[in-house]
């Protein structure tokens, strides 16, 4: 069956690429395309841009990396922004970005299925309301689309408050509470720190090994230092240097129950995507015992948890700092471009392009820096095809006499 069934009332022809997701990646690629004269349509499941930042992050969050590494292409942060902008500053920047490039996503369009139709050579993208058709599909739904909720025995029995960090806002709701934070990545550490600052009593579960690095070394961001050193030295040497300085400035984290992995922080990040923790104060609270380190959880009980070392504890609340995952496998069909975990199979730096007009932006495990590179590559690639295709699109819309409810013609 061909893709262009005129009797289907709810299909919309998109004269340009379809971008799924209006986070930083979707906005960046739309802006780069526009700069190259290519229109695009962003489909976004929520009712705002950057929904991860607006709806799923805690109040005290600041960018983990210095601002120069978190800028989107073609439009810089305001000069008066601090080195590590707050999440509110970052959101206001993204809103200005969308306004500057006149990007108007179609909100409340959750993509349920996207599939390439080999018969007519177009992508069919199905939301709850419409079926969109386009020659290009750009996947920008992010590495953090869904919260990971681990299966822990007994988790349903817990009578206290149980939440994922994606719904945690502030420690004000937990004053004087004993809180079990499960997970010790950046979110687990920062939520534990926030709990401390609100006179809660956090206990942080550390099941695996973890690299903790100071956010800055001698006033310079650790990330900047790593980036600079990597231009001159092999990755393993850079890792050794980072660990040497981390041990000198932070002391041995192993003694605190935070074992370091055998593989260095950058090598581990490249191999597994596991980000080192950039310490913003949690470590000193661990040293003073205000954040207590707990072993892995064996079982959740009605009133708390049993741990792998045989101990038990009572807790008022449990916060799952267990991370996020891509949701691509749930809606992207008919192609083996992605792994089961929803990441491109082709390794960095070539994972941004698939076959038949498929692209991905923001799946490099390199944060917004990776997004910016992907966006520029995609825009360059599509703009080359666009000139040829533009005429066809115009003819197509005219000959099909598309009206507003049938097609979008830019
Ligand atoms: C707490 C936290 C702090 C972080 N700090 C930094 C930092 O300092 N620096 C940095 O570089 N990175 C940071 N990151 C990583 C960060 O997630 C990304 O850099 C950035 O948000 C990625 O943008 P994105 O557009 O790829 O994904 P997202 O921001 O996740 O945006 C994806 C969008 O796609 C939408 N979507 C998902 N599925 C569908 C669907 N089926 N249909 C329609 N729309 C859909 C979502 O609603 C969302 O709006 C942080 C992440 C977290 C969780």
UniProtKB/TrEMBL annotation:
Its EC number is 1.-.-.-. It comes from Solanum pennellii (Tomato). The keyword ATP-binding does not apply. Pathway: Plant hormone metabolism; auxin biosynthesis. Its cofactor is FAD. GO terms for molecular function: monooxygenase activity. It holds the Pfam family FMO-like. This is Flavin-containing monooxygenase.
